[in-house]
Amino acid sequence: MQTIVYTCVTCLCLVAGVVVAQQAEDTPAAQPTNFASLERFIREYTDEVEGGNGQWAFEVAGVPVMVLADQAADRMRIMTPVANVADFEDDEFHKLLLANYDRALDARYAINNGILWSAFIHPMSSLSHQQLDDGLEQVIRLADNFGTTYASTDMLFAPGGLEPEEQPKQEPLPPLRRGAPPAPRS
């Protein structure tokens, strides 16, 4: 049985490698994201940006957003504060861990200095406009859904464990448009 599983995993890895190699040949190489290009991405959402050089603060749809980046570590994060951990109910940590497993897609709940954050973390060098759009939308939605569905999108990874009243039932966010923030949250 172990040999079969190992052989299947090896075959899948080889096939995936061929598909990735073929896609790489078909698409032009993207330029790595750096501080300047990341700031250009951010300024496509708003001109009211504070900071620079790897640390930016701005608002999207009335939500305060921070972007922190480190070129040497090749990491960036989009984040917004959600709640004060001292105000949590007894079962809140359990709900957050469950949400991080099946309802938070690429954004995640995280805690730092007594604050619950919604955060999206990604390698900076390979960050595309679409990934920034998706990450920003998920961070905002995850923060907005704290205490209700705890979801960053309408998609669930493993919905089998959710009670019917916990299923995300929400209006889709309008797509983020560069140059104009999405409609305010209701």
Keywords, separated by commas or semicolons:
Yope Regulator, Chain: A, 186 residues
Mean pLDDT: 77
Helix/strand order: HHEEEEHEEH
Number of distinct beta strands = 6
**CATH fold description of the largest domain:** Yope Regulator, Chain: A
Give the CATH level 1 class of the largest domain. Answer: Alpha Beta
Tally of discrete structural domains: 2
Task: Compute the separation of the termini in Å.
Answer: 54 Å
Largest sheet: 6 strands, antiparallel
- Helix % is 25-40%
Side-by-side strand order of the widest sheet: 1-2-3-4-6-5
Structural class: alpha+beta
Strand coverage percent: 15-25%
The rough form would be described as globular
Total helical elements: 4
Describe what this molecule looks like in 3D.
- With 186 residues, this protein is α+β, with helices and mostly antiparallel strands.
- It has two domains: 30 residues; 135 residues, Yope Regulator, Chain: A (2-Layer Sandwich), CATH 3.30.1460.
- It contains four helices and six strands.
- It has a six-stranded antiparallel sheet with strand order 1-2-3-4-6-5.
- The N terminus is likely disordered.
Helix and strand topology:
Elements: H1 2-26, H2 35-43, E1 50-52, E2 55-60, E3 63-70, E4 75-84, H3 92-102, E5 107-112, E6 115-122, H4 129-144
Question: How would you sum up this structure in a few lines?
Answer:
This protein has 186 residues and is of the alpha+beta class. The chain is 33% helix and 22% strand.
